[in-house]
Amino acid sequence: MSSITVQPELLLERILTLEIARVTERAAVSSARLRGHGKDKASDQAAVDAMRRELNKLPIDGTVVIGEGEIDEAPMLFIGEQVGTKQGPKVDIAVDPLEGTTLCAKNMPGAIATIAMANGGTLLHAPDCYMEKIAIGPGYPKGIIDLDAPAEEIILNLAKAKGVKPSEITAILLDRPRHADLIAGVRKVGAAVSLISDGDVAGVIHCAEPKTGIDVYLGIGGAPEGVLSAAALRCIGGQMQTRLIIDTEELRERTIKMGIKDPKKKYEIEDMVKGDCLFAATGVTTGAMLDGVKFGKDVIETDTVVMRSVTGTVRRVRAEHRQFEKFHLD
Ligand code: VTB
Ligand code: MG
Ligand code: MG
């Protein structure tokens, strides 16, 4: 039998892979309870409370660097909040306890509970603002995407590299008026546009999941979601380029305070997630990536994906929960 030596920090991280799955499971179940009730804020709060409760049980000395910021006005899991028992490694944590609050409130596909974790000081500390993003899956030559290139050129380059016609390329974008020019550019060269109403963490990840048929993510979404999806792509491969949209003086000051010297910097995955990381997401409502929570009389079922960048391992965890007390449901 071969014996593999694993560095202690890595071993602990490996254990955390399962621990963070628990964290997103709890958040997903708590918010799923309010699916379809039209209560964006209440379902978000339920996810935040559950995620925080669970994070505080973990053997980590954690700092939330991407959290529920000023925009959501959530009182917990704010940027800078310390979480965990403190008996463990220093880690940076990015959370979106309910990514797609509107999707959950309307019981539409694709709401997830999501988290990323990395060694302390290695995740981008981004404010809760907008971010320009472009992302593709693995298998393309490095440097093929550029935020400043017109959509037409990006599509043509991707088609060439993939060895297909531009009409066989599909771009995914948030359905927003601000994307009118990008959408027109994609369509002009004959490619298809797939529009989502919310949830661009999954939108970016779809680029690295061949079964979705999505080749490229384009457009402006949340910066927190940008860092979370960069962590996922760091695990499964792909390329991403992003840039914060700092358009007010107040935001500029906040950004400087967070340690960002050049607000116009174009970030690559390695700039947003500098080292090893873990990523997890649990489905709240059923979407292309994950099934939603199923409530039975005696069993609650959850569907989670957990990724680890050091090995590139992706696990799908389908859990049946028989002890309901742990979810603190009423
Ligand atoms: C973005 C997107 C998210 O909300 O943050 C969006 O990244 C908010 O953008 O995935 P709008 O102000 O245009 O709605 C999500 O869709 C959900 O949090
Ligand atoms: Mg979100
Ligand atoms: Mg959220």
From TrEMBL:
Q: Which cofactor does it need?
A: Mn(2+)
Q: Could you tell me the Gene Ontology terms of the biological process aspect for this record?
A: fructose 1,6-bisphosphate metabolic process; gluconeogenesis; glycerol metabolic process
Record: residues binding Mn(2+) 1: D44, E68
Write down the superkingdom of origin: Bacteria
Q: Sorted alphabetically, which Pfam families does this protein's record hold?
A: FBPase_glpX (PF03320)
User: Keyword annotations for this protein?
Assistant: Carbohydrate metabolism, Hydrolase, Manganese, Metal-binding
SUPFAM superfamilies, per this entry? Carbohydrate phosphatase (SSF56655)
PANTHER family annotated for this entry? FRUCTOSE-1,6-BISPHOSPHATASE 1 CLASS 2-RELATED, FRUCTOSE-1,6-BISPHOSPHATASE CLASS 2
Q: Which family does it belong to?
A: Belongs to the FBPase class 2 family.
Q: What is this protein called?
A: Fructose-1,6-bisphosphatase
- The protein's gene is named glpX
